[in-house]
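To: structure subgroup
Subject: Chain for Friday's discussion

All,

I'm putting the inputs and outputs inline so they're searchable in the archive.
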Amino acid sequence: MSDLLNYILKHEHQFQSKARFASLYSDFRYLQTTNPDGYTANITAWKAALTNAAREQLLPAPGGIPDLLTIHTGPELLQALESKEWGRPLALGTVVQECLRKHDLFPRHEFLTRPESIYHRSWAFTPWQIIAWGLRQLGVGAGLHSEEMLAVGSFVLLSNVEELAQKVVRKMSTCDRVDRISSKKLFVAQLEDSLNAQRTLTHSDIDILLTYLRRDRGAILYNGETIKFIAPGESSAVITPEDAAIASLRTLIADQNAQMSTLAVRVENLSMAARKAVTNQNRVSALSALRSKKLAEAMLTRVSNNMAQLEEILNNVRQAADQVEMMKIMEASAGVLRSLHKEVGGVERVEMLVEHLSDEVGKVQEVDHLIKELGHVGPSDDLDIDEELQAMERADKEEKTRREDAETTRKLEALPVLEAADPSTTGYIATRKSGETLEGVDTSDLKASTAGEAKPASERVSAEAGHSEKTDQGEAMIS
């Protein structure tokens, strides 16, 4: 089993079921009329599988290095997809034709040489397109989409191109003006560093990506050597000599940096070789290694000095570019302020508006003062109101006193009453206690003693004390 088929079986769930796998490897062209949904599902499954496999660089390629953005159809692809149980996919030609018709695939040569954007759709039909449409309506040519008629060629996978381009544009959007300018060589090196270390971009991938960014996305300017990413709102339409100089300077710095890394590794290796020769008592080899090390160190020093000068120049270029951007911002801000001041109308208009506003505020305050005077209450009215308030307070105080006296009387009447009879009478001592009845007692005297007006609290307390003394005397007489 090939790596391609193994990847599809492991990562594409549409191929993991035996029934679905058999359907996808069969000649399912008849489903286009009997089951259109099943036909579309098979086409979609194959398109996703091939796109993902190309993204992993598992599709076979003529040069041996798989492409990331291109699929090469032919016997090699059919052989890589061959299964022991179901053989080769019989409808792969139909899949390719459907992807071409839906513009998911583009012939590579057409993609690179097309003058207008791939997203541009023209309503004009060529004679061949009209004839082909008529033949399809008559059912002629239906058998062209077979495994034997699989188109042999290279086709651009649009979804992979769009995905990679989006990553590049998003990354470059955070760069300054200098970093947005580079040579093709530097662009490729930086792009490969940002991708997975196991993936490499072929020359075909680079050409396809740059063509798409320039023509279809409008994100770069490209003249074959220098690449300039266009910032949002930037109106630059050409690559200037200054842009080319910046690209050359950045490329030279990148080359010097790579050379420094190589020289540093060489110095370390020569130093180890010299120590090993000394250990083996090989004087000649040790001297040779030390001489080479000295030359490498001298070269490393010279490259390092050149690198420092180039970095200083590049920093000055960055500073100048920042100053240009600052001047553009200041110029735009001055224009905005000028426009706003024009809308304000000058100092004279502002003074006039402030004066009118003060007059209107004064009128409002004057009207408010007059309204307050109309509702003002005079001194005589205030005197009458005070007298009425005092009368209400006195009445309330008397009512409270009356309620307090009534409550005190009620509490005193609830107390036990002991009263002694007159010794001159023939009656006997009657005692009234809580829970007892009065029998054989002339109650007229009792009623007379408890009837009448309610006395003040002090007098009732004295009377109660008197009753208590009489009660004590009555008890003494009984005993």
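Points worth raising on Friday:
Residues 141-148, 418-479 have pLDDT under 50 and may be disordered.
The CA atoms of residues 222 and 228 lie 7 Å apart.

D.
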